[in-house]
User: Fold these one by one.
Assistant:
Number 1:
Amino acid sequence: MAKRGLVWFKNDLRLHDNEALASAQKECDDLLFCYCIEKSQFDELYQGFRRADVIRFKFLRQSVLDLKQNLDKLGGHLIIVEQSALDTLPRLVKEYGITDIYAEEEYADYEMKLTAGVMKALPETEFHFFWGKTLYHKDDIPFEIAKIPLTSKAYRIPAGREAEPRKTFSIPPALNSVENKENKEFPSYKLYGFNKKEYDNAKPYVNGGETYALARLDYYTFKSELLTGYRWSRNKSDGMDYSSKFSPYLALGCISAREIYEKVKDYESKVKKNQSTWWLIFELVWRDYFTFKAMRFGNLIFQTRGYKNKNIVWENDPQKFKRWCSGTTGIPFIDAHMRQLNETGYMSNRGRVNCASYFVHDLKIDWTWGAA
């Protein structure tokens, strides 16, 4: 029986090092490619703002359209749908005779519930999930998820000694795409509650998409050799070159941690191996640790008491919270960083740790308000 696959892109908006895509191309006779925009991502929270704002929406749009363009070059065609995957995937399975769905494996509650809902709606469809969110594969680390250490050092040293990042997956040279006529543009910002002024004024700090992510990686390493000084420049707050700026791309999967790792190792062999190259890889390992820790404790990490069940008395002054959000606290260092976040969707590591510390220890506001 012929296999017709559907590659369901989510937070893996790339062709390189995408095991779901590579496996689907290898195993199926032909393929359909789909990205569904979940409107709930932009719902308003009880604090009075959205789960994700218009800057995130524009960065997502740039990233998805870049993916679409890159797929087109290989003979693929990305279907971009404004409806939830809960509605879209069952329709596509029926209309195109899909037998198998390929996607990246999830670990957080929101994404897992979405995936479970899709699977429930399609009991006859074969699902294939692949882990691709971390530097070290979850099956290769020297810990069971239920026994991930409570400190990063206790994780990092054994993981670095006993685990090795898997090789990246190459981009397929061509794709066997199902012929379809669903050629919609990216849905309008209006469908998600944004107005024209908001959208036009939104200026993401970096351009979204795999193409820009790989260009940034190449620039920060071999073209500029800025990586050599990363260890000593990373704690600055303003400008493009003091740090890598990989985090926005990692968040949407426009680049993989393993792709970054391989580039850094290549840089070490050809240009320079020093504390800076070690430190950038350390940051990726640190990122892994918090992913695996989140898998261990689940939704406890999103609750006020946390996984340690701490009982802290908060003042939760709504006016102080509003001033912190708008960057009008009267503390110049805090305000500058908060305004940068509001305008660009980005804030430096140094800004994040200081703004968070001020929020919790000085303003004494429930940390989950700030994290939202």
Number 2:
Amino acid sequence: MTTTTAPTTTVRALRFAAKEKVAVVDAPLPEPGPGELVLDMKAAGLCGSDLHYFHMTHEEMRHATQPRSPEMTPGHEIAGVVKAVGPGVSHPRVGDRVAVQHYSGCGQCASCRRGWDVHCERGARVYSLNRPGGCQDELVVTAKDCVVLPDEVSFPVGAFLACGATTAYQALLRSEVKPGETVVVIGVGPVGLAVLAWAKAFGLRAIGTDPSPERRAFAERLGYSDVHDSAGFDIEAVVPGGANAVIDTSGNVHGRRTAVEAVKTWGTVVFVGLGPDFAIDPVPDLIMRQVTLRGMFVFSVPLMMEAVAEAARLGVDLAPIITSVSSIEEGPDAFADFAAGSVGKSVIGWE
């Protein structure tokens, strides 16, 4: 193993101690095996899926749609510095700044060879679900999951690009919206705000909707003034004829219905937000209007590399979306604030 300093054997980590309770514990840190490396953690973003488990008992976690062990450290939005590498690792190198794609596949099946580890035919391992996540001082990760960060991308933004911000980037690509056209974003949480940031960089007219006055006010403070109350939102009053593309980040029935109703003939709707239930009538909703409806889940490693490079090249304004950076010792309070409805993006940081 090549290393600058020997990795520690025990690190501080956050754990879901009980329903709606997070604790700081000591967790073991194994030596990196073949193809693995040790990250000195710098940023771990808190995501809505983390909050989903925060509200569960340990038993509920074990039997969730995506089961997780309570002994797993949360945090799948991971960025840090390579501290040590295991056998066979030539890239990235010790000292590299990296973010980590959170689905880690076998690397050999057809999906993985295309970079789509999320659809690994042998079953992907997921940071924070069935392998430790990033809310700990150091972390063993698989080298092939790492994307090197340019100096222009901070660690908190790098962690954001490891999930929500690249999800937003891919959603716009999937929508096939073109410069000068209009996109409507349903929900202006962190992913929706990232869609607005990318849309601005791409030269699009971007419109948001959200039921939360706090979220709408925060979006306006970031410079996104065309954000409307989702209650009674009338697309005809804002964009007569409808938007070229609509991206739903809400994952709820009302948001999805608004998305389908707000898109114009020949437009594209992209469903990103996770959540159950939605009734659609194919004839009036899709067929008669030539509407394309797409579902989207996570992204490939090559696409994350592309998003990181484009964020740096275009100067995409993602940093203002991050409103809170807390130390690991402050992690329990950070989760509680997140659960209470804090706006913007919350991050556990080590700088």
